Amino acid sequence: MHASDLQRPDPLIRIEHLTKQFGDFTAVDNVSIGIEKGELFALLGGSGCGKTTLLRMLAGFETPSAGRIFIDGKDVTNSPPYERPVNMMFQSYALFPHMSVEKNVAYGLKHENMTDAQRRDRVREMLDLVQLTPLAGRKPHQISGGQRQRVALARALAKQPKVLLLDEPLAALDKKLREHTQFEIANIQYKTGITFVVVTHDQEEAMTLASRIAVMDKGIVRQIGSATDVYEYPNSRFVAGFIGSITMFEGVVTESNKTHTLVEAPQTGGIIRARADQRLSPNQKVTIAVRPEKIALSRERPENEANVLSGIVQDLGYFGKDSLYRVKLPSGLVLSVNSVNSRRAGENERIAQWEDQVWLSFDPSSVILLTE
């Protein structure tokens, strides 16, 4: 497992060296993860990275080629889905169109050892949880996409599984509804205390929802950490490039001590100063990475700043809450800069226009140095 996982107490879900091959193709490659009880954990990655295959192995729909899966201390590697304390919510929601909302939620309980009164109470409790009690008698086609998503969630939670697996749960929703529903899911997870494992390709969704994120690429887990960990402290070029927007360029370390690291970066025409998050060796090659929102843009040269660059505004995009500037340095390197529009202004009142010469600056603590 990852070092951070090794220091944790015995997790609810323990995935050990899990591998899945389809012929010559390795979909999941020697993955080890520990997921805690009550955690909302996200598997994040692009198409074909192995995240859904990993989720299906947790559910019991795929058999691992190698490795073990433990849930609540029990080895479930070869157990069928119905013998696992797990339920899965599918991307399509898979609601029965001829059944009411109430009957859809109740369907998963029909084989449970419950009285009719207990079953009715559980369904009512689940509908209250997802705020759909007034719509209990409606059919799926009579409610919105967001409401259908909540019916599917209520049905999955009704059996009170120890683990709920969610495969791209918000993919069918529009952007605004997706953002609203992210907070609803996080709130429901907090109220129930059930462990949620969410598969998503949407980095913002993972960062909003999850307490921890596993970033996957080509069947391998590249990094596990909180949203802050993977965004502010990526451990590789892949993670830095996958999570959010970032500008990366190459450099060579000239000095590294306990307080700072100096890197010669030919594309900037000088030295970049970074905080000493790690000890590096002189002449070591590194990739320098800077997030767009960490860069300040001004018409005048800033005073007393460590990293100051000059360039020409090549592109400008206005997005309401902020503006994106793409600034070209003399070397041809283009840096992206986010500037928050904190007050209402007209086009002629922006910091800079196309073809303007501007100054860029960023604090050494904002510089990410990558060696992998």
Structure description:
With 372 residues, the protein is α+β, with helices and mostly antiparallel strands. It folds into two domains: 240 residues, 3-Layer(aba) Sandwich (Rossmann fold); 122 residues, Nucleic acid-binding proteins (OB fold (Dihydrolipoamide Acetyltransferase, E2P)), CATH 2.40.50.140. 23% of the residues lie in helices and 34% in strands. The chain is built from nine helices and 20 strands. The strands form four sheets. A six-stranded mixed sheet has the order 6-7-8-3-9-10, with helices on both faces. A five-stranded antiparallel sheet has the order 13-12-11-14-20. The protein starts with a helix and ends with a strand. The mean pLDDT is 90.
Q: Order of strands in the sheet with the most strands?
A: 6-7-8-3-9-10
Mean pLDDT rating: 90
Shape: elongated
CATH superfamily of the largest domain: P-loop containing nucleotide triphosphate hydrolases
Radius of gyration: 25 Å
CATH top level label of the largest domain? Alpha Beta
